Amino acid sequence: MAALARWHVGPWTTRGTRPGAAFEPGRKRTPDELNFDVVGLARILGRRLSGRDELQVRLWQNELRPTHTRLCGVHTLADPSNAQLLHDTAREALAWLGEQAPAGYEFVLTDTVELRPLLDLTAEVVAVDAVIQLAGTDLPAARLAAAHVRRSSSGSWYAGDAVCNWSGPHESAEDAVAVVQAARDELVEQLRAAGRDDLADTASRWAAVPV
Fold first, then answer.
1. 7-26: buried (b, 16+ CB within 10 Å) or exposed (e) per residue?
2. CA 123, CA 176: separation in Å to the nearest integer?
3. CA dihedral in degrees (102, 105, 109, 110; nearest 10)?
């Protein structure tokens, strides 16, 4: 999906309180607010809803977000059956998100929606982020090895994550990808030097550099 061309490991929504836990106004969403965020995230990333379902989302929004300046972590749905419907809809949205996860990654719901690397070294596609996490040691090439490549508004190409640029500007996407691939080659050497041949041996199955 084009919407997931710029993805990142970690939280994709604001954190929320667990069901039954004390609310933290201004810091964390209520369970209903978090469920609404899950539904909203899927819509932002391209999930299409029927007209009836879109109307239901608007009704939830009116009750949970009455104004743009409202304090988060306060609002809940008054009708328990309506809250259950939102809960079920959020689980459907999460399942849809799971189908959109990049190869080697998964979406999970904790107190936020998180994108995590799959830690299965036998998988057909292994995420570089998974290798770095499993290594459990400082690897100088790690940050750039896990970078994405993207084009700036000025037309130049950079390697980095969803927020920061770590290499560039480059004249072409190919030049930026080459920098990331060189970092991956260095990462393999650093893994072997650290005695992690098991991780280094997965390099042929690492996901392609995202562009």
1. bebeebbbbbbeeeeebeee
2. 27
3. -140
Farthest CA pair distance, the chain = 59
Query: If pLDDT is split at 50, 70 and 90, which confidence band does 92 have?
Result: very high
Check: pTM over 0.70? Answer yes or no. Answer: yes
Tell which residue, 117, 97, 94, has the closest CA to residue 105.
Answer: 117
- The whole-angstrom separation of Cα 16 and Cα 19 is 9
Cβ contacts of 116 within 8 Å, gap of 6 or more:
9, 105, 106, 107, 108
On whether the CB atoms of residues 29 and 16 are closer than 8 A, the answer is yes
> Do residues 14 and 28 lie in contact, with contact meaning Cβ atoms separated by under 8 Å?
yes
The one-letter amino acid code at 112 reads: T
Tell me, what amino acid is at 65? R
The residue count of the chain comes to 211
Cα gap 153→82, rounded to integer Å: 43
Question: Mean pLDDT, the chain, as a whole number?
Answer: 92
